[in-house]
Amino acid sequence: MNNFNKRKIRQLLTAAFVLPLLLSSFTGFGQSKASSGNAVSAIKESDIKRDLFALAGDHFRGREGGSLDELKASVWIADQLRAMGLQPAGDDGTFFQFFHIQRTRITETSRLAIGSHQLVHGQDAFILAPAIASVDAPLVFVGKGTPEDMAKVDIKGKAVALEFSGTGPAEISYRRHLFGTMTRRAAELVKAGALAVVWVSDTPAQSYFERWTTGLERGRYDLPGGANTRVFSQAPTVWLPASALDWVKQPGQQFTNVVNVESFSYPSVNIVAKVPGTDPKLKNEYVLFSTHQDHDGVRRAVAGDSIWNGADDNASGCVATMAIGRAFAQKPGKRSALIVFHGAEERGLLGSRYYVEHPTVPKGSIVAVLNAEMIGRNAPDSAAILGQQSPHRNSTDLVDAALAVNKTEAHFKLDTLWDKPEHPEGWYFRSDHLPYARANVPAIAFTTLLHADYHTPKDEPDRINTDKVTRIAKWIYLTGWNVANRPDRVRVDPGFKLER
């Protein structure tokens, strides 16, 4: 072999072995000692960005749970999974597990009037709960409802109107604080003898009325037979805009409210796929990668935009989960990978609740659940794990696996406040890992938390940090890869019990 050929061979060897090592030092997710032998390189930002703009684009009209748009988006996702080489793991040899959701709403024949003002639910006023009611009573205005205000008025047998202010906890937590306050105070007033409660926004609170009443238009949803499907009688609680404040204060008005409800059944769907494991024994166990494909659909226009696209909530989680499926299809683990996109999450975790009760694999074979929920916004280096700390942590083994990958590979600064039981958002209880944790399956959720565009038409794909989504997808994948290939299952912590 002459010297020229030796030089060429050295050059080829350098290109084949040294260059990839150099490149890996820049990506942060190279074939390090912690991640050798896996297919993390199959998770590419270009794929994630392409899939994000397809799924969160206007074509799928916001993917509202129980609608044709959710079903269309679900078929699209299943087609992508099939093309990647994943196998169907739903019902009857398909990628799908269909289930019914039930909706209870206020009928169009319901009537609401205060004095001479005829009000339409969903336009001029919002009734907080779809419950049967019939009230004809004098209206009394009690200011802000302070003890001093209440001492001046006899509320027994009357409808009580009071003003609330747009001040409270931080903006991002104020919605839950507001609805919780309205519900609690209304219950107190009804217990004291009021027949109805009318909340009127002040000027600072008007923006909340415009933004947060959209969910009240639809009514309540649940699985058939669930608590939210039950029709009952209840003293009505009404929310009015700030423009009503002046005329609501006028004395001598009558409150008239006749509310009827109706119920509908809609189809929703879980998308279920798998990559069989390579170990003859361990392949009968599953690492479940979880997310949800639905969002809010088409609603009242805000700044001319009526499609609530849900790019972060939760197309970001969907495209990351698709990328994880692509990586496992390229190189399976010892345990099988189970990929589940849950339908109707926004309706109350309905798809994940249904799947836990009707799993398409034996429930005991599910080793762990790694859930992706809103992973594309806020600071580039920030993230959180839900289920990281007590009382939400149900598997120290699983949490330690995720933290180890973050330390060696992902390098996110982890927010721990949102996982605390006293956090006002109760974020741990609002995503698809929860039904699995309640069923004593080790479960955590990866998230980058809420932001100002949450559940608004501004949650668009061009606002998503796709590099961040890619990095979190790799973090979830490497955590799942560890769980899929370790000799023993991750364990449920003894004595695990949620605070509610």
UniProtKB/TrEMBL annotation:
Residues making up the signal peptide according to the UniProt record: 1-30
Superkingdom of source: Bacteria
Pfam families recorded: Peptidase_M28
Keyword terms, alphabetized: Signal
Sequence ranges assigned to domain Peptidase M28 in this UniProt record: 270-476
Sample GO molecular function, one term: metalloexopeptidase activity
Record SUPFAM superfamilies: PA domain, Zn-dependent exopeptidases
Gene Ontology process terms (BP): proteolysis
Alphabetized InterPro entries for the sequence: M28_fam, PA_dom_sf, Peptidase_M28
PANTHER family with a match to the protein in the record: METALLOPEPTIDASE M28 FAMILY MEMBER (PTHR12147), PEPTIDASE M28 DOMAIN-CONTAINING PROTEIN (PTHR12147:SF26)
This protein's name: Peptidase M28
UniProt source species: Spirosoma pollinicola
